[in-house]
Amino acid sequence: MPTIQVRTTQNVFIHYPVASVGDRILGYLIDRIILIAFAIAVGTIFYNLEVNEQWIWIVVIGIPFILYSVLFEIFMNGQTPGKRVMNIKVIRLNGTPATVGDFILRWIFALIDFGVLGGAIAVILVAAGGKGQRLGDIVAGTTVIKQVEQREITAQEVFVVAEKNYEPVFSQALQLTEHDIDLIQRALEVNRDLGNAKPMLAVTEKVKRQLGIQTDLPPVKFLYTLIKDFHHLTSR
């Protein structure tokens, strides 16, 4: 499954899967149902109030239909209610949040994506393109990802509490900061939960250079040991 690399606020890269065609279609249908329910509710109210001015019907019902997706994506950080239900969102291909301009471009080209052949163009492009992009996404440089819950890693999951007479393996661990340890923990979490070893390997090489450590320990064991040493040395 194609993935998009996203940089977190901790400067760790996480790979999110591209949203499937099925998820995007279901999200779209949920949004359509919401709009239809809104139109029925407003139409019933106007009918009972005997509102006969056509322009009022067009403004109150028509404009929300036209601007629904773009406004929700702008104000809900790349999501509509349907996308939120399906846990998918719009981001840029480089992993950064989409901009207002990106959302507007996607909205403009949605007229072609969904207005021609009943949306078949959008489905074909998303399914065949490899990056989950419809025409609007290609023009805007965006795609839609499936959000994966990032569970916080706990201390107990990262290292084993040292015994009373524990001797640190790497005394250089004392040179690290809490921020460094947080990055190491998150890199290990990405490797464990998503099977993506790239952040862990990058952190391993960076820490070895920074601390001047040479070891044949596998990256996972090395980082776990480093965390254990850090907590032992800083708890004295």
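That was protein one. Protein two is written in the same sequence-then-structure order:
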Amino acid sequence: MIPIFLALFLFADPFWISKPPAEWSDPQLLALLSNSPWAQAVDGPGPGAPPVQVYLATAAPIVLAEKERDRRIQVRRPPGTPAPDKTEYRLWLEDQNGSQIVLAVHIQNNRGFLDEREVRKMEDETEMHAGKKKFKLTGSFPPSESDPYLRLAFPRQVELSDKTLRFDLYLPGVPSPFRSAEFTLKDMVSGGKLEL
């Protein structure tokens, strides 16, 4: 009898498929945005460099998670506190009609984005690798006081046969600014579709 229950548990749909976002617990929401097939903490190359949180902001489960997180923040926000302003980013993304993959990177200190040389270095050094293909940035949205996520856009030219998706990053204002995040594409299939 126990093996049957174990099999049912192992083959059950993950919560982001089986429940609507409003029913996700806070720990489930946090896990989806921090440690899931679409999210991870990226360590620095040297000792003492704090990890940087990244996630694929255009993957459907993450899109739902961001909307639900923003809704919960708004409900809990003290009166007079400004809501995160993502208007420019969201309008741009709608215009792209699904042609972009966006990696969101949590930035603790956005002062590095005031230095044009640092921003230029980010634009020159940051790349996406899908299998053996390499892509440069197509756009970026710096973090702000109300939205602490740097959003980096790349062309949506990835196939499941590429096997891995790697981002080599240069992050202005981050200790040990060179970081690399790698995702396994087969793990990012949700509801029978590759979610990026």
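The longest strand covers residues 100-106. Keep this in mind for the problem set.
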